[in-house]
Amino acid sequence: MSKNSIKLDINLSFHQTQLSRDMSLFQVTMIGVGAMIGAGIFVLTGIAAGHAGPALILAFALNGFVTLLTALSYAELGSSFPEAGGGYLWVKKGMGGLHGFQAGWMSWFAHAVACSLYILGFGYYFWEALRFLRVDKIITPIIDMVFPGVENDYIIIQKILAVIVAILFAYVNFKGASETGKWGSFITVLKVIILAGFAISGLVVIFNNPEWAAKFEPFMTKGFAGVIGAMGLTYIAFEGYEIIVQSGEEIKKPEKNIPKAIFISLLIVVPVYIIVGFVALGAVEIPEFIRQSHPEIVKTWDYLSFSKEGAMVQAAKQFMPLGYLMMILGGLFATMSALNATVYSSSRVSFAMGRDKNLPDIFGKIHKSNRTPYMAVFISVVLIIFMALVLPIEDVAAAAAIMFILLFIQVNWTLIKLRKKKSKAKRHFRVPLVPFTPMLAIVLQLILGYFLFHLSPIAWGAALIWLVSGVFIYFSYSKGREKERAEALIVYEEKLPTKAGFRILVPISHPDHIEDLITIASSIAKSKDGEILALGVIRVPDQLPVVEGKNFIDEFKDIMDIAVEFGKKKGVVVNTLIRIGHNVNNAIVDTIKERDVDLMVMGWKGFSNTRGSVFGTVLDDVVMSAECDVVMIKMVHLDKMKNILLPTSGGPHAEYALEIAAAISEAYKSNINVTMIVPPGISFEERNIYQQRVDDSIALIKDKVKHVEGKLVKSKSISSGILKMAETYDVCILGAAREGLMQQLIFGSIPERVAKKCRHTVIMVKKYQGAKLKNIINLLFRKAKDRVGKR
Prior knowledge:
two-stranded antiparallel sheet, alpha/beta, 29 helices, single chain
């Protein structure tokens, strides 16, 4: 039984349904790194320096240790129970009742308040960008006019920009678009590069100053209490592993990759924070005009604290080449990527609670066309904006840290409970020294929470109000509704039929041409004594857990029924598989590997709207990654297939095209014309050579086809010659071209031009050449596509 399969509470007696796992170790690690190297380091470094002084370095290091203890619990639980929802679902599974509800309630608030911090950080960095472009001179008078008497225009502008960007990302998540794995990884690498430039530039300045050590004296300006206060304030910056496990249902090999991603991300992030803190304290000089206007600022950390969320910008412009501009860009990228991730996470948690009947049904509503939890997104963004407007940025950071601390305490306690409650569960990673390790994590987090109370009573007040309201909602509403919930998912997979000698995969997205695809696939399957696997892929937006794709299963049920019934008419077994995932091409490619597919038959509209793409962004990747033979069909009136044109030039692809043409001809009772386009003015000897190739091709299929003939056609252009002949034929079957490597990246430039311009059905055939050649071509193809896209 497949561990990725589910049975649905609808009648699908012969359809298999399977979840797709799309995220690689690199992608999910970048999600964690991107979440941790985000607004925390760009926004909170200066504020935390004011509390700890030079001991900010120690605060970052100790935070890394405290984080590691909870990360161990997340690694074990995430690898053992890889479900969307993370800490909320584990606490619910381990302790249930009020504890489970409060875990989700706190997780939602924690991500929402973290998001408030990020939009405020974005407001600052965007304002700095406007100042860099000198647009501030236009905006400031308008603010003075609208808000007369307000002393600090910047705060007003920051809040306005924060609200605008929150609404923008709410719309992005509502539409179902998000920061994809590749784009998110690029942003994360870019942030690391900017911080590396900051660190290197600062280290050069520090070690060229023989008295640099004096800047770190005294080391603990406010004692150990200041260190712990800075730890609590910046603790939110280390919570990226919560977002890693939120994607548990979508990660490839989660039992191995979740622990690896958590530990690799921490191994990257903690040293970065320590080095950046060291450089910010050691390389910055207090500007003279600041000394004169603010005599109380005498130490570097005083200046960083005075600069607040702008400390990194003010530091970078002193010693980093293009530092002002680079740090603004880094801050914008950091806050936007963190903002996107937390809007996504907060809405996912509230959606999961609505789905589980812990919150009203409105939270669990899915938009019909966008397939996104739109009400969960909307309500989460209202909460995000409210917190950003009513609290100062320091209190926002403290409130978020408090909620995450309380959530992590519950997760550590849950680990202890689940070790006893589910002692026989398979654990691919085990936390050492349980229960002592999670208990140590709980004690240290309670200490952080205590010092945060002294740092920000307002934040603790907001947190307590939220917790008390959660208790009220649970007993007055959620507790009763939990009993009403009916389970929609049951583990199931119908037993696969005995593997035939040949398996053909037919990906299906809609009913159009389904009979034609099955007919062509059936004709090939009969000639090979094989079977057909009809595949439907339900794409779920990133804003929803993969498992929510079950709600859209009815869209494919009737299509799959048609495929099965039509296969019966053709005398061929058609099995069906419905996969649910975020990435269509990954689902197709994974099916090819998992089900030992020999040939893939796909429909194609005949053109691509994407610049630099041959078939389209999905099909390009599928065709290049498919470890099997490929038949692509541009279908135009496929009911007419009496005459088949088969241009040939020899080679494995052309021979395979002959084989496919023979199978189709047998099913449709078609005539075949094997044609070779030759240049004008060829010699008699050359003509004989070409004619021999045509005759050899005919000989390969003569016994299988009722009527086959061959001819040579003179034309200056091969593609023009084929297109002219194709006008009088019902279908043209082409093999991959025997051209230069760069030209035959997919099927070759000639078949591509013919397929796009021909007014009749075109079938393009590609013989699988093995993994080694595939990888080489794949690499070259992507480089070529990037060049085309840049043009």
